[in-house]
Amino acid sequence: MQNPYSANFPDSDFSAVYCRDGIFLNGGKRNNKVLQDTYFYNPKSKNLEKYNTNMLEARKCHTNVTIDNNCIYSIGGANDNNSPTSSTEKYFFQRNNYEYSEAILNNSRSYAIAFCLDKKFIYCIGGNFLQFPGFNVNDIEKLDLSNEAKGWQIIKINNNNDLISRSGANCFEISSGMFLIFGGKNKAQLDNCFTINRNDQVNAHSSRLSSPEDFIPHVQSLIDSSKAYVLSSQLRLYCFDLGSQTWSIINYNNWPNY
Q: Which pTM was predicted?
């Protein structure tokens, strides 16, 4: 596909999320300039559309979360001065506009992992302090979407801070109300995983990645009835069996057809 916006399209540090049968992406940087642009890619028509609305602030290294395909939350990251931001802004598809959330992160963070649980809560996990390279955030913040004025709340974690201290991790829901967080980096690439459930309980998971160096921030997962698939930075297809709760690597010739 030829990109009609290639001259100004971000080359790194943007955030993308799958929603509405396509890929929504915003922010990022090009030639060291942090951007405010918003795009949507339709894989069926192979059409890339640039929306005629900008983010409220230039933002990179942030994390996007979709809420019921109607709204995108862009959380944290850094601005055009390379200064970390603790703000969150929301994009509304119906109105085609952004607005700030009332909620401000307790700790600004980049390359965090975030997800929405039960269409009611957003969890923002780990990430790093962009102004202090090599140092990760070791907490989890939770936002109640029915009461954003209450702000992000830090969840109390018992003796599992080392699990949480990672940036560039990935996640997906492995059972109702339970998410698996895997990969990422804490000085070195990580092969361990942990879970968090709707009771805010964090536990180490027995599964491990065979090649953690593959994984990069914002990798999208594809989940069917019994398996989850993640394409690595080295184009290896990892499969997580939701029944046995184990990882494997699928040979290229055996990739599933969708």
A: 0.91
